[in-house]
Amino acid sequence: MNGSCRAVMFSVALLACAPAAFAETSTVAGQARVIDGYTLSVAGVRIRLEGIDAPELAQQCMHAGRPWSAGKIARQRLARLVADHTVTCRAFGKDGYGRLIARCQAAGRDLGGELVRAGLAWAFVKYSTTFVAEEQVARLSSVGIWQSRCEPAWAFRRNRWSRGASAAPAGCAIKGNISRNGRIYHMPWSPWYAKTRIDAASGERWFCNEREARAAGWRPAA
Length: 222
Description:
Blueprint: H1 3-13, E1 26-30, E2 32-34, E3 39-42, E4 45-49, E5 52-53, E6 61-63, E7 66-68, H2 70-82, E8 87-94, E9 100-106, E10 109-110, H3 111-117, E11 122-123, H4 132-141, H5 153-167, E12 174-179, E13 182-186, E14 205-207, H6 210-215, E15 219-220
Parallel strand pairs: 4-9, 13-15
Antiparallel strand pairs: 1-8, 2-3, 3-4, 5-11, 6-7, 8-9, 9-10, 12-13, 12-14
Helix pairs in contact: 3-4
């Protein structure tokens, strides 16, 4: 498969980053379960925080010659922000898979803004300029990702996809695994991706994009 085809597949795989048309504002409130540094489930509704992109769970950055787990620390920070609080989210749209794109607050604090200000997320300026000022504060303070050598999350995903596609059948880099937890698919930037082996004889398979995986009955790894 040539590079242009892989680029198309990668673009489709990341369709969730771009909000689709949304007719009216929606509000969701309740207890939250944190999935990663930019995704959470509120009252059972899966939400991607608007205006930010945080390091992936498998992503590490370098500081003073030593790695630190930026993705896991971002998730931990988000978990502390929502702990024991009601989270209220105002949605502005839906992504290609039905997740709400929303700004969320807990205890009066904007979750996306707090993460960007702490240097644990980037302002996702490709889609939104909401947190540009907060990112500038973090940059000037040299905190989190700004005190270290840290690849932007979107570049990290793009590079992981390229490496996964180069080793996958027909360049379809998503691994559809079957386990005791059901049918789960792993993106190339998943912490479990390298450890997951595909056994076609047992019904496991590769997917070219997330839409294809979901249509076949697989769900994303938590």
